[in-house]
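If you are new to this repository, start here. Below is one unmodified record pulled from the training split, so you can see the exact layout before writing a loader.
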Amino acid sequence: MPYYILLSNLTDEGWKTVKAKPERIKEVNRELEAFGVRVIHQYAVLGPYDFVNIVEAPNNETIARVSIELGFRGTIKILSMAAISIDDFIASVKKN
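And here is the target side for that same chain:
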């Protein structure tokens, strides 16, 4: 399955939720699983984004749906990027 990098920022409402119930982050991970997305790694980070998630999903459409469904709640904004493993990237370059 393809990998994706999700960079996210919490909205003010999202921060209120995390402050009141930090374990909500893990609950969202279980919701992702219901979409067919598996969280590989998850980090809280400093800088322009609040969280970095590396996930595995069946396709771009699934990731788009996740971004829409979670974004619709008004607690998070997500930037999604498809990721290619270095070995796959090198193999694709060698085909030329």
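Two things worth knowing about this chain: The two ends are 24 Å apart (CA to CA). Helices lie at 12-20, 24-34, 60-72, 86-94.
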